[in-house]
Amino acid sequence: MLTIGDTFPDFSLQAVVSTNPKDAFTPIDRAASKGKWKIVFFWPKDFTFVCPTEIAAFGKLAGDFHDRDALVYGVSTDSEFVHLAWRQNHADLKELPIPMLADIRKDLSRELGILEKSEEVCLRATFIVDPDNIIRFVSVNDMSVGRNPHEVLRVLDALQTDELCPCNWQKGEETLQAA
User: Fold this and answer.
1) Which residues contact 104 (CB under 8 A, 6 or more apart)?
2) Which member of 64, 123, 157, 174 lies 3.0 to 4.6 Å from 114 by CB, making a disulfide possible if both were Cys?
């Protein structure tokens, strides 16, 4: 699995950005996020139970991530058509303000090393990638346990200080000074 200090792979994936089939689909690639922080989170399968709780939670924080000059991308190995159907049929996803990317060929997931071994679906992985496309944070949860988007936002805040941040540090608090 790629980890801290590795370069986030190049990608070009079809994304779903609305529930209207006329303008729902758009390609997104790594170049589109040049010079921006990126939060890229993966989930195992659409139309499941834990995944929409996380996706909706990231959606609710989209404005906070945007305020920090960070783009948020959600990704699974489902197709863009399955993403669209899910958004159209799940109340918490209808107004989702973040794109859902379709890694249907599994190229990005495979290159990152986050495919679950038996079913080859994405693990519940989260990456914070800096403006130079360097991975600065990685977290992978068990398939049955949802992640905490507020913690991802807290870590982004800490990384953006470029300072030493103690345990449970929150934006606006003092950072540590090396003696």
Assistant:
1) 14, 77, 78, 79, 80
2) 123
